[in-house]
Amino acid sequence: MEQRRQGPPPRRRQESREPAGPPADAISPWVLLRSATSHPFVFKRMVRSIDRAAEAGDVVQVYDKHGKLFGRGLYHGNSNITIRMLTHGDRPVDDAFWRDALNQAVSLRRDLQLDDVTDAYRLVHAEGDGLSGLIVERYADCLVFEVFSAGMFIRAQMIAGILKELLGKPTSLDRPDATFDDWRVIVRADDRIQRIEQFSVPEAELGGRGTVTIREHGVRYRVDMTGGHKTGFFCDQRDNRLRLSKMCRDANVLDLCCYSGGFGLCAKTLGGAKEVTSIDLDEAAIEIAKKNADLNNQRIKFAHADAFIYLRQMIDIQRQFDVVVCDPPKFATSREEYDLALRKYYDLNALAMQVVRPGGVLLTCSCSGLVSMGKFVDTVEAAARRAGRTLQRFELCGAAPDHPVMTNCPESEYLKAYWCRVM
Predict the structure, then answer these.
(1) What are phi and psi of 70, to 5 degrees?
(2) Phi first, then psi: what are they for 279, rounded to 5°?
(3) Of 47, 158, 176, 226, which residue has the fewest beta carbons closer than 10 angstroms?
(4) What is the assigned CATH class of domain 95-210?
(5) How far apart are CA 56 and CA 54, in angstroms?
(6) Beta bridge mates, 301
(7) Residue 176, preceding bond cis, omega within 30 degrees?
(8) What one-character DSSP code corresponds to residue 318?
(9) CA atoms of 18 and 34, how far apart (whole Å)
(10) Sequence-distant (≥ 6) Cβ neighbours of residue 245 within 8 angstroms
């Protein structure tokens, strides 16, 4: 009988040496991790155990699976993002931390010399400025906060106080007696975030009067800071609006999903477009866009319409435009919506390309952070094949530089802008 070869003896399974709890000298409140990465988000599945003393919004000491201090972050047990990391190693999250982080954010915007061209820009870009869960926009003499965590909501007024000191008096107030206390502060949070993070923004946080007029490259806009989308205006497209305007001399321009009318208004005011048609499904947005056109003494055609339906109508009547802008709202707000979002981008772009005259310009965008630039490019170019069009791509870019990206959080590079000629 043939003798079977004997392999090496099976290894005994070693018992885990990972601690069941934090080290004996752990500082409360603490969280012990199963796994850790350099990404600022710590998800529920990455957590081994949590100090009973930890409460929503607390700064917690975060220990890795070996019981070593990993860093500190904002905790919420009800959120899938259980911890938003703020520091690593032994650096405390104290007054000096907040002042240093906010000073770095303000200094970057000053270095970018944004005040030379606008009084509306992003002061704090969440993970991009090392402050996960917090966005702060500057609109003239207003600071508008958009908070994504209970921890940042609890600290919003403290952060506002530091920002006021760093900024000095609002430059938009031409008064000799103006001080840093003249900044108006408005705090906003999406209803879904408030439910998940279990906090509620009271009416008092809305800061009273909710509208303000801003300037950008010589164009004026009325911003609804309490009722508009997000914080009321999309500063991220500032540079793209200016660039597009330079391609619009004597052109027929179609601005799809126009919101407050920025692209179309720049095309007309700065670019000398012959005719601009701006479309949006949101009636309130159309009203804001109309007011912005009036504010700049410009005549623009507005239509309250679904972009998909409008494009099919234009295809049916064989209407084409010299320049088309396609900047839809975020299609992928969660990973569950990812596949559906790609189909929407595919369908919308396939339609949009068919209304661009041969040799005309298409600027198409995605603000879904979950959709990478590579995937967006693939989707747009697949849509071109379906539409029977060839694209001459000449630029890929993203948000304006007041929206910085930390390399440990690539999805914060959320905006994709695809520039091409449609042949």
Answers:
(1) -95, -35
(2) -120, 140
(3) 176
(4) alpha beta
(5) 7
(6) 277
(7) no
(8) T
(9) 9
(10) 266, 267, 269, 270, 271
Residues sharing a CB contact under 8 Å with residue 169, sequence separation 6 or more, in sequence order: 178, 179, 180, 182
The CATH number corresponding to 234-422 among 3.10.310.10, 3.30.450.70, 3.40.1380.10, 3.40.50.150 equals: 3.40.50.150
Residue with tokens 């999250």: 93
Report the candidate in 309, 379, 320 with the shortest Cα–Cα distance to residue 344.
Answer: 379
Contact in structure between 322 and 357 (CB atoms under 8 Å):
yes
Q: pLDDT by residue (tens digit) across 147-190?
A: 999 999 999 999 999 999 999 988 766 666 667 778 999 999 99
φ, ψ (nearest 5 deg) of residue 319: -85, 130
Per the CB < 8 A criterion, the answer to whether 195 and 80 are in contact is: no
Question: What pLDDT, in 10s, does the model give residues 97-142?
Answer: 999 999 999 999 999 999 999 999 999 999 999 999 999 999 999 9
Q: What residue spans define the domains of the chain?
A: 30-88, 95-210, 234-422
Task: State in words which class domain 30-88 has.
Answer: mainly beta
Residue 335's Cβ-count burial label (10 Å; 0-12, 13-18, 19+) is exposed
Report CA-CA distances (Å) from 400 to 241, 281, 314, 350.
10, 26, 32, 27
Quick check: 197 and 56 in contact, CB under 8 A? Answer: yes
CA-to-CA distance for 148 and 134, rounded, in angstroms?
Answer: 6
Point out which residues pair with 81 in neighbouring strands. Answer: 43
* CA–CA gap between residue 289 and residue 283 (Å, rounded): 10
Reported as a single tens digit per residue, the pLDDT across 17-63 is 666 677 888 999 999 999 999 999 999 999 999 999 999 999 999 99
Asked if 126 and 148 count as a contact pair (C-beta separation under 8 A), the reply is yes
Q: Both tokens of residue 245? A: 């305007």
Mean pLDDT, the chain, rounded, equals: 92
Q: Are 156 and 145 in contact (CB under 8 A)?
A: yes
What does the block give as tokens for 37? 């990465």
Structure-block tokens of residue 66: 């070996």
- Residue 184's CB is within 10 A of a number of other CB atoms, namely 18
Task: Judge if 95-210 and 234-422 fold alike in CATH terms.
Answer: no
First to last CA, the chain: 76
